[in-house]
Amino acid sequence: MGTKKKKVLVVDDETSVRHMLRLVLEGAGYEMCEAGSGTEALQFLQDNSFDIILSDIRMPELDGLGLLQQIKELGVDSMVIMMSAYGSVDTAVECLKHGAYDYISKPFKPDEVILTLRKAEERIRLQRENVRLRQQLSQKNESHKIVCRSKVMDRLLTLVTRVAETNSPVLITGETGTGKELIARALHQQSARAKKPFIAVNCGAIAPSLVESELFGHARGAFTGAVQQKAGLFEEASGGTLFLDEIGELPMDLQPKLLRVLQEGEVRRVGENRSRKVDVRVLAATARDLRKLVANGKWRDDLFFRLAVVEMHIPPLRERREDIVLLAKHFASGVAAREGRPTPEITPGVADTLKNYSWPGNVRELANFMEKTMIFCRNDVLDLETLPGEMRRRDRDATHKYSLKEAALRLEKEYIRKALAATDGNRTQAAKLLEISLRKLLYKIKEYEIE
């Protein structure tokens, strides 16, 4: 809860009670405000927030129960404690049913008041901790969310749903930054293995001399520095999923051993003679062209075919431009939520700039760009002036170099949409309006992914 003083609003029509409680509360380190009636308390709550409200039940005009009900209707999240005189316990219990945290009976001792407030403080702390943990969990889940609206990604996610139900190996291909690990996680989370481990390892980030030990484990004394036995990642992922990222970097001498695991379902630790059974689904990903590596004799063809039982390709961001603005909004929203700020609106000018950029680093580059952009955006609108300088320069350069081509494509797409709208979707009539063949129109509709 920190060292900041907790604010308490005391509501009681008796001056002597309010005076006594001020002495008790301020002596215990609380900051206290007082109201002589329920109506006055509501006025306080319009412009002030309190951690705890301590209210008498019996008051003229607006009694404690009526005040409690109005507090709940206003959405005030203060912890409410009722004060009940002798003989009004039934009313106090009724208040509890309407959302009061607790009640104390008059006449009360100072220690009793403070103890009740301390308990309320602990409840507040737990509630806030609960909210924080839920937000963290939400952000974690959001970080693994696949955001898209393009047809090509819709088809890919449909395939993910179907393939997730199997145990077959999957090879995920695509340029760096396209989100291959997100697809791997989606396959795991939608499978029967979802409650078991998901372990990801970048094969290109491990020293070649250590790859075998990392994947398969080693016995004590198997090599210099192996002071104790160690289970490999295959064993750690048993029952779950092992994601081998950058599988194209796997050394040639280890490829037969990986093939054995896929075929036999067992691993042998470095320095041991016996094999151990493992139940692991293997997902692999690469930005390299494994077929070309196989053709050049730099990759085993039998391992390639064993890994690529199902092959999924993630297209680069420049080939699914309809996802760009949606992703930008998603990343901006994530940064805003993390910093406790409202999500800014993206203007049409910024949307066009984002869509016209080629994004060689794909989704990862867009995520980093939006993080940087949110540093400069302090308002609720993200406009061209807010964009970092390099993007504005890129936008000007791209406009000078590609404006005619881009303009022609946009105009063609717009005219096709208008012709279809004018003919209520009749493609034959639309083709006549556009003075092109029906075959060409159908090709353009497919190319532009026009609904």
Automatic annotation (TrEMBL):
All residue ranges annotated as the Response regulatory domain in the record: 7-121
Modified sites of kind 4-aspartylphosphate: D56
GO-annotated molecular function: ATP binding; kinase activity; sequence-specific DNA binding
Keyword ATP-binding: yes
Keywords recorded for this protein, A-Z: ATP-binding, DNA-binding, Kinase, Nucleotide-binding, Phosphoprotein, Transcription, Transcription regulation, Transferase, Two-component regulatory system
Annotated CDD domains: AAA
BP terms from Gene Ontology: phosphorelay signal transduction system; regulation of DNA-templated transcription
Chain ranges of the Sigma-54 factor interaction domain: 146-375
Entry superkingdom: Bacteria
Residues of the signal peptide: none
Keyword Transferase: yes
Classification via Gene3D superfamilies: 1.10.8.60, 3.40.50.2300, Homeodomain-like (1.10.10.60), P-loop containing nucleotide triphosphate hydrolases (3.40.50.300)
UniProt-listed Pfam families: AAA_lid_14, HTH_8, Response_reg, Sigma54_activat
Record-linked PANTHER family: ALGINATE BIOSYNTHESIS TRANSCRIPTIONAL REGULATORY PROTEIN ALGB, TRANSCRIPTIONAL REGULATORY PROTEIN
Protein's name in the database: Histidine kinase
